[in-house]
Amino acid sequence: MAYAAFRSIGAYVPSKILSNEDLATMVDTSDEWITKRTGIKERHIAADDEFTSDMGVKAAELAIQRSGLDKSEIDMVVCATISPDYFCMPSTATIISTKLGLGNVTAFDISAACTGFVYILSIAKAFIESGMKKNVLIVGAEKLSSITDYTDRGTCILFGDGAGAAMICATDNKDEAIIDVHTGADGTFADLLMTPNGGSGSAHDSLDQEANSCFMQMKGNETFKVAVRTLTKDVIEILQENNIESSAIKHFVPHQANYRIIKAVGDALKLKDEQVVLTVAKYGNTSGASIPMAINDIYEQGKLKSGELMLLDAFGGGLTWGSALVPFSPSK
Ligand code: UT7
Questions:
Q1: Is the pLDDT of residue 206 over 80?
Q2: Out of 67, 80, 207, 316, which residue is the most buried by the measure of CB atoms under 10 Å away?
Q3: pLDDT band at residue 209, thresholds of 50, 70 and 90?
Q4: Is the CB–ligand 1 distance for residue 258 below 6 Å?
Q5: 180-284+305-327 sits in which CATH class?
Q6: How far apart are CA 266 and CA 252, in angstroms?
Q7: Pocket test for ligand 1, best of 34, 43, 224, 261 (most atoms within 8 A of CB)
Q8: The model scores a pTM over 0.85
């Protein structure tokens, strides 16, 4: 049987910074409020002519280079995004694969909001373990600034742009394998976090610009409570099912939505500060890109070593959630 190994990571962060002070000139908020309630100090914003696929390509180039693979060996590209280049086609994954010059590969997007990276990890794992694919490029890429309402202080303070990518590759060595991935969803909470307009469910006869926009809307406080409850339950379950103690986790890499959510889950697992990866202060919430961007941060800081165990944990619109136990297994 083939196993799936997490071989490499890459990320891209656009250069333009939107600080809390900048936002305080746009909506009724303050650096103090945003810092205290979220832990976010700044987020990065893509240029007008920089698309989600462009950021995904830059992250992917790094991940491919670090994997040591030739591009011709890649047989599938999956992109997690809620801010694709185009609603609804072509998929951002097909654009990324073409810009990378990959030729004839299977390519598609998935929509699982902030849980997207955990979902595409599970897809890559399943395709590899079934023997259908060998080298799967997974990309979480978001230009959330394109679907953010910068007059809504409840959401615009949270979101940023960026991309992260990883190569997931077949291996015979079980010690290198992704141990487990959990994914879940519950549509009864759909209205907590959604883009109500712009799809087949919205008012097509309306000429109102707002009705045709794809801006995110969120019931923040209710989302917060469900997030803490669901994330805590999910990570406890994946650890118990795999007989792994939280002390064995070298890097807890949660979705970077809010420092207070991360702290609550970390405390429930009795994690030490040095086990918890935090990037929320500098990138904000980049949805499907947030986990691979965080993994890339520890990789580039020299903190992520071969064989070290990561626990990934995410929660987002849908509602969706997921967790994964992933040893870092670069090519030897
Ligand atoms: O990534 C996917 C999942 N997303 C999340 O997990 C996000 C979860 N939610 C959150 O992170 C938090 O709920 C927020 C950061 C969005 C909001 O923090 P909160 O502590 O839940 O605040 P709240 O919504 O309960 O609002 C408290 C007060 C309200 O004023 P009143 O009614 O008490 O007078 C809000 O109007 O804070 C006000 N408020 C703000 N004040 C200054 C809301 N947003 C702001 C703001 N600046 N940006």
A1: no
A2: 80
A3: low
A4: yes
A5: alpha beta
A6: 8
A7: 224
A8: yes
